[in-house]
Amino acid sequence: MHFKEKNKPKHFNYFNFFLILLLVVMLNSLFLPSINSRIYEEVDYSTFLTQVESGNVDQVEMSDTEIVYTLKKNGQNEKQNKKSYYTGYVENPDLVKTLQDNNVKFTKQVTDENSWIVNFIVSWILPLAIFLFIGNWLMKSMTKRLGGASNAMQFGKSNAKVYVEAQTGKTFADVAGQDEAKEALTEIVDFLHNPKKYEEIGAIMPKGALLVGPPGTGKTLLAKAVAGEAKVPFFSISGSEFVEMFVGMGAAKVRDLFKQANEKAPCIVFIDEIDTIGKKRDTGMPGGNDEREQTLNQLLTEMDGFDGKKGVVILAATNRPDSLDKALLRPGRFDRRIPVELPDLAGREAILKVHAKGVHMAKDIDYNAIARATAGASGAELANIINEGALRAVKMGRHQVLQEDLEESVEVVIAGYQRKGAVISQREKSIIAYHEVGHALVAAKQTESAPVHKITIIPRTSGALGYTMQVDEGEKVLMTKQEAFNKIATFTGGRAAEELIFGSFTTGASNDIEQATKIARAMVTRYGMSDDFDMMALETVTNQYLGGDASLTCSPETSTKIDQEVLSIIKSAHKKAMNILKENEEKLHEISKYLLERETITGEEFMEILNGEKSSDKVDENKETTTSEKEVVIEGSEFQTVDEGLTLEKKIDVEVDNKVDLDKDNK
After folding, report:
1. Angstrom distance (rounded) from CA 169 to CA 162
2. Which residues are the active-site ones (predicted)?
3. Is 9 helix (H, G, I), strand (E, B) or coil?
């Protein structure tokens, strides 16, 4: 089956252009005399009479203003025979008799009163019309390639897509995991249904509601659900569509958008990524984007101008609320700020069930287990997990999705697909196994640590050569100082195992070092978990929904002390991890040997061996390994598993180790 490529850039069709040009040349040759068809030479009237009387003239054409004649054929000079001569017309009554006497063919042109009109149309109007047609065609082709309007008169028109209730097809039933946001928007829906009861008491509905939250949490879906519930027209436009090359065009589009909205009231206008045009003004920099500022000013004016009682509600979405202009957020414009945060445990379970409705799922699916393993995931990521599970079921030749498909899809989203064809030497596999078991042992021997869910040394397409997954038994929104310190110790457990067993260490702990340093620095600068600095704020975070860019707000001397404090925390955690592994060195060898033979073990198997309930000698000897013993160096990128945020993490505690080029890291 062949699929047509959509949105493919259209190239200029030179064949059509030259075809039209050839047509113009042909029309010109048909209607206009060619300059090469005749060669005219001017002579005086007496010369003309002399040639007539001498019998050399062959044919004469007379008009009211001139006489055109040709000479008789002469075989000696063919070019001379083609030449035509002309002279001015002189009133001569004997001219006709002279021509007759010398056997000259002559005609008299009759002047047509409409001939000048025909000549004007053929000479001027027709060529001009043809070139206007070609220019219009070229303009349309260029505007399609640039994605602009096909008509210059449409530059100020809004590109908003208008949906009616039947076309959106979304209701609050399609939105899960956002109960607080739905409750805040229910009042808007009720106002659009029953505006009179609000008018009777004198209440005015908020003109605008701003949806803020991380990407993929369902802000656009919520806006469509509001329109679906209210059964009113829904205008959808992106903030980037207001940005034009010409100053003032964006403002014109804003005016046109609100004009259309007032005509179709009650309705909902949804502006996605409003930070594109709503950024703060007067940043102190010279110059600036006049087009964006004029568009923002027009938006502010339009929001002040329309009557809230008409039922026009403005919804906007952004994941950068800190960059918006304060004038846009004041009461009377965007009165309400509705957080659309990452879902909690119950929300993730509900989202998984919503996206699983259209998929053939097994009856014994444990959605709660998948939800616990995906703490910190957005709605879009959960939908992707369901889809990855369905794709795996098809790949395995099944007609329904099983629990193992969803569990594998979680790992695919986290660390990528398995690289079963990767080749690693036996020594490096041994280092990776001890490294991962080191993480797991340190985590298991500490209190207030998440239980180990899975340990594997199968490489992944993300570059991970192995990882240890921890899954909390319940939902956590806070982290104590001891829990943060234990997490750092768990991160250092892999390096400590390498040092203890092999007497050296590799580049496999590069990601562990990065994550441990982030947590230790956050403990000191943001969470007041340092005795020296107490509750002093030393760091500010911007763009909290887009990764959180941090910057220090302290003197250089204090920054040096912060570095010393962070180093002290990491060293203490590293020492703790080393002591735990030394006390359990025998179990470290036993579990590592078991992991080397199995390549993947579950948390239950790990705890059974650790507690002495299961012997590592009972191994399936027929189990095939997925990697060979041929030595090769595998380089991979870092895989980040801990996000900076209120809880310091995404709670998907996966320790990932890579062999990377040291020179590349130094760069």
Report:
1. 13
2. 436
3. coil
The per-residue pLDDT for 631 is: 30
Segment holding 148, helix H or strand E: none
Is 216 annotated as a binding-site member?
Answer: yes
Specify the domain boundaries for CATH 3.30.720.210 within the chain.
33-111
Q: Are 384 and 413 in contact (CB under 8 A)?
A: yes
pLDDT digits (tens, 9 = 90+) for 637-648: 232 333 323 233
Local structure of 425: helix, strand or coil:
coil
CATH 3.40.50.300 residue ranges of the chain are 161-339
Q: Match 């992991």 to its residue by tokens.
A: 595
Identify the segments of the chain with pLDDT beneath 50.
Answer: 1-10, 33-37, 146-156, 166, 286-288, 619-667
Is 376 among the annotated ligand-binding positions? no
Residue range(s) of every CATH 1.10.8.60 domain in the chain: 345-414
Maximum alpha-carbon separation in the chain = 140
Stretch(es) of the chain classified as CATH 1.20.58.760: 426-666
What CATH topology corresponds to 161-339?
A: Rossmann fold (3.40.50)
Residue 273 falls in which region: left (phi positive, over 0), alpha (psi -120 to 50) or beta: left
Residue in 597, 665, 639 with CA at minimum distance from that of residue 461: 639
Q: Are 268 and 235 in contact (CB under 8 A)?
A: yes
In what helix (H) or strand (E) does residue 459 lie, and over which residues does it extend? Answer: none
- Predicted local confidence at residue 656, as pLDDT: 40
Which CATH code fits 33-111? Answer: 3.30.720.210
**What does the pLDDT look like over 192-223, one tens digit per residue?**
778 788 878 888 777 888 999 888 888 888 88
Other residues' Cβ atoms within 10 Å of the Cβ of residue 159:
15
Residue 459 annotated as lining a ligand binding site: no
Question: With b meaning 16 or more CB within 10 Å and e meaning fewer, what string describes 394-415?
Answer: eeeeeeebbbebbbbbbbbbbb
Positions of E strands within 92-233 = 105-108, 161-163, 208-212
pLDDT value at residue 114: 58
Q: Which residues contact 320 (CB under 8 A, 6 or more apart)?
A: 275, 543, 545, 546
Give the per-residue pLDDT at 648.
Answer: 31
CATH number for 426-666 (one of 1.20.58.760, 3.40.50.2000, 3.50.50.60, 3.30.70.3280): it is 1.20.58.760
Count other Cβ atoms within 10 Å, centred on residue 617: 9
3-state secondary structure 198-227: HHHHCCCCCCEEEEECCCCCCHHHHHHHHH
Question: Is residue 215 part of an annotated ligand binding site?
Answer: yes
Q: Which residues neighbour 652 within 8 Å (Cβ) at sequence distance 6 or greater?
A: 373, 374, 375, 376, 377, 414, 469, 641
CATH number among 1.10.8.60, 3.40.630.10, 1.10.3210.10, 3.30.470.20, domain 345-414: 1.10.8.60
The model carries a pTM of: 0.65
Q: Is 220:317 a contact under the CB 8 Å cutoff? A: yes
